[in-house]
Structures are given as C-alpha cells and as structure tokens.
Amino acid sequence: MKLDFFILLVLAPFCAHSMIRALNTSATGMAAQEEVVNTISNNIANLNTVGFKKSRTETEDLFYQTITEQGARTGPDTLHTVGVQIGSGSKVSAIRKEMVQGDPNITNNPFDLLINGDGFFGIILPNGRLNYTRDGSFNLDHTGKIVTKNGNPLFPEMTMPQGTSNINISENGTVEAFINGQVEPIIVGQIPLFTFVNPVGLKSKGKNLYEESMASGGPIQNVANQNNSGSIQQGALESSNVNIMTEMTDLIRAQRAYEMNSKVMGVADKMLQTVNNLR
What we know:
With 279 residues, the chain is an alpha+beta fold. The protein contains two helices and 21 strands. The radius of gyration is 29 Å and the shape is elongated. Mean pLDDT is 90; it is low at 1-15.
C-alpha cells in the first residue's frame, strides 16, 4: 500500500502537467467550435438576403510537442517507426465564402437583375471608389438614376430620360429606355460585370457589398456574357445560397463537438483534483 502511494506521489507532478495540457487543448477546441456556431448563425440570419454567399469555418491543428522523433534510433540497427507527438489543440484558420450561385427568384420587376455566372455588379460609393455586389435589386432615385437600396449608383452611372415608360436590359447588359410617343428605344448605356482571380478573397463590407483585397486581386471588367462573367437576367434576383438543412446539420455537429470538448475538460479537471488530493 505504501509502495502504491509512493508511486502516485512520484507521478503526481507529471500527471498534473498532462491534465493542464488537456485543459488547454479542450479550451482551444471549444473556442474553435464557438466560431463555427457564430458562422452558422450568420448564415441562417441571412437566409433571405438577396445574393448572400454562405461562409464555412475552417480549422487547423496547433503545434505539437515532440517527445520522440519518428526515425530516432532505439538501437544500433533499429528505429522508432512511429514516434511520440502530443498535440495542443485547434484554431480557426479561415472563414471561407462559398461563391456557389443561389437559386433564381422571378420578380418581374424591370430593375431587378440576376447574374447567371461569376460576375459582380460595380457600385459607386460616395467617395468615388467601387465596391462589388451580387445583389441586383436596383431602383431609380429622384433624378432617374439607377441606384441600390442605399442610394449608391450602379456603375457606370445611368439616368433614364424623362418620359421613360419601360426599360429593357439584355443579357449583355445593354440598357434600352422606351420613351412615351417613340417607337424605337434609346440606348442609355451598358452594364459591365466584374470578375476576380480569387473571389473568395474579397472583403465583406456589409450592405451586400464586397471590396477588393490583395488576396482577391484587382477587378477585371467584362462585357456581360463574356469571359465567364455571366449573363444578366432582367426581372429576377439571386436568392441566398444558404441551405437551411445543411446549416442545421452543421449546427448539431458543432454543438456535439463543443459538448465533447467540455466533457474532456471536466474529466481532466476531476483527474487533476484526484492528484491534488493525494496525501
């Protein structure tokens, strides 16, 4: 009995160190799953946001403590074939936008535009810079200019002539205005579409807008229906690409992972109490 107590007493510092490591490792797993749930909640919140692109949380493992190197010698002619490495948990490495196109929603509103392809509309900000969007729900302001819901002009700026009774926007972005009393329409302009080498590198700005970044590369201006930019469909909007069933499944998985990390932390804490209560 005394020998068993002596062995536990000797091993107590090493067990305590291992338990502290387990506590820290579990904490990193819980923090990572919190970010997964945060991402899922934002996806679900934007289930009905026009042109919204869902995000996916990606995690990676943290550094390892190497106790025994793989391939280290165990004798003159023998090697460790596996080695001993102890992980220190996980962290969020990226929250990636999934640029898969959402389903079309037919509205028959002449100022609702859907992009069938990879392109983005250009939006002119008050400071003159361009942001980019997949939200094609445009309107006319009091001057007859095509603008977003927030009043920012579509690029390039286009103003409908007085007396316009209807407009037609073709697949290549050509905007034609039909004037009262005239048979032939007036060509007002052409809407370009912008593409990026790495669209998932775009920076989300809110209000359905994206901003270019070093990761996305610069915008490439295209005529609609060319260079994989996509065609423009009038009278329709792009729905959010969030799939509620997928999000609910991912949410349950994240909850279970969080609970398991919490369980591990509780077990490690109880084991540490056992070591600390040794007399």
